[in-house]
Amino acid sequence: MGGQAMLRRLVVGVDGSAGARHALEWAAAQAEGGRITVVHGFDPAPELLVAVAQVSLDEVREQHRLALEQTWTEGIDRPGLAVDERLVDADPAEALMRVADETDAQAIVVGQHGNGRWSRHHLGEVPGRLLHKSHRPVIIVNDDAPLAPLTGPVMAAVRDPKGGEPDAAVAWAADLAVDRGLPLRLAHVVEPLTYIDESATIDLELLTAASAKALELLSGNVRAGRPGLEVETRTVAGPPVARLSEEAQAASLLVIGSHRVGPILGFITGSVARHLPTVAPAPVAAVPVD
Question: What is the pLDDT of residues 230-281, one digit of tens each?
């Protein structure tokens, strides 16, 4: 990272929901001494609703601006923290990515779900879109996340330890651990493949042992460029979402890799990325790896 402090320049999405407020306070706790840009995407598309309500679009926009600058960001000031507000006439996800590019944000921070009709067991539309469109890290903050600087281990989910070289997500997690003086946990889940062919004979113990050795090799390469970094490895077998959630019980942040793909392929290939933030006991940072 070239000595640059991490999570000190953040873009945070708000919409007046409790989840968005929690994410904003979490971001403020991480960015001490830095700057957060609070963004609300005002999508002018629902003109029909405005017409039915007999309220002009300008009036509605002004209401949102006042809420952003007064109600939604009230009490968020911290010593040494600069806070800016931006109302952007765009879809919320597009607005966040646009401002993140303009401010060269180190990450985009959002709540798990906003004012939509999703339950806490479903990922909201905005974080879901960001997962597969953003070329910057996206941090999805769960409702139970402590509103304090990171103190526990940073955990990185390793998709494939073979080759021994860390991908962008693992490297990002390691750099953050160094920046915050925290230990790093590398976790790899060996997923049973019986759903492909129930008659197949797979020695899961042997596969898990081989994966554990590969993860140790990767761990050594991560430490090599980061003197003093404490790294722990864990290789377990089972359903990825459930096992990663269990392994992250003591973590202050869970880091996963994300892939920028189309909406249909993204839904299929990104099932872990989409479901993990809804059950993980810590905020989930999705870092683009392609």
Answer: 999 999 999 999 999 999 999 999 999 987 655 443 433 467 888 899 999 9
Q: How far apart are CA 37 and CA 13, in angstroms?
A: 9
* Structure-block tokens of residue 96: 């966040």
Q: How far apart are CA 65 and CA 72, in angstroms?
A: 10
Question: In the numeric block, which tokens belong to residue 9?
Answer: 């320049």
**What string of H, E and C letters represents the secondary structure of 106-158?**
CEEEEECCCCCCCCCCCCCHHHHHHHHHCCCCEEEECCCCCCCCCCCCEEEEC
Span 154-288 CATH architecture:
3-Layer(aba) Sandwich (3.40)
Domain boundaries, the chain: 9-141, 154-288
**Can you tell me the distance from the alpha carbon of 128 to that of 112, in angstroms, rounded to the nearest whole number?**
9
Distance, CA of 219 to CA of 175 (rounded, Å): 13
9-141 and 154-288: identical CATH topology: yes
Residue 253 to residue 151: CA distance in whole angstroms? 9
- pLDDT one-digit tens code per residue, 4-53: 589 999 999 999 999 999 999 999 999 989 999 999 998 876 544 555 56
Both structure tokens of 251: 């973590």
The CATH H-level superfamily of 9-141 is HUPs (3.40.50.620)
